[in-house]
Amino acid sequence: MITAGCDVGALTTKVVVMNDGAIMGYEIARSRARAVLSATGVMDRLLGKLDLSYDDIQHCVSTGYGRNIMPFARSDVSEISAHARGAAWLAPGVRTIIDGGGQDCKAIRLDEKGTLEDFRMNTKCAAGTGRALELMADSLGVDISQLGPLSLEATEPVVLQNPCCIITEIEIRHLVLEEVDSANIAAGINDITARRMLGLARNLGIRHDVAVTGGIAKNAGIVSCLERALGAELVRFSEDPQIIGALGAALIAADRAGGPGHRE
Predict the structure, then answer these.
(1) Which domain does 119 fall in, by range?
(2) pLDDT band at 264 (very low <50, low <70, confident <90, very high)
(3) Do 102 and 179 have their domain in common?
(4) Which residues contact 197 (CB under 8 A, 6 or more apart)?
(5) pTM score, two decimals?
């Protein structure tokens, strides 16, 4: 049985296609202005690679901010539930998930069965999100993908303290004008982002093992900051951490269609 999950996020759109509980393939692309175009464009590309059609998919579940307007999805689910399902499937020992999304950050706690127990979400401030990280990278004059590797070269990381990411952007521009080493600024950016994410998780109550999902999980500098603060290694997923929400949606699609590995 073939199922699919589509996660339309603020910055990127992800799709996963599964067959009888195994991942057939996935695709990640920058989100467009219209969620429908984001979803159909990425799904069309993945189906083409897999030599499948929409008729081959028995059930598709959508998630993300555009989940209610996807024409090919039969049902939808919240990002919280999708990330919980995907993370627990890949790493059954996970108890706390920190999802660094494009426009929000979420901390999710699972019970010993891998079932969603509680969560926290920052909705009033962009701090700790992918978009804030992009803006700060722009202020530094580097691509967001460079922040992780660059920060690992730091010798004297700067300390950024202001909770507002807009004011922090201005502070970064001043540091650039003062010719502070880019690696030290990048380390400061990753540190303040990690602190915002960790603060949300601590408000929820952290239980080990801890995993980070979303594109932010690909930033080695942020991962390093979180591990130092926690005093423990984060869970490493066997799949791209950016597809966890779409993966969870595809698994929930199998649940709802009664496929292999579904939960009653």
Answers:
(1) 93-236
(2) very low
(3) yes
(4) 98, 100, 105, 107, 128, 212, 216, 222, 226
(5) 0.91
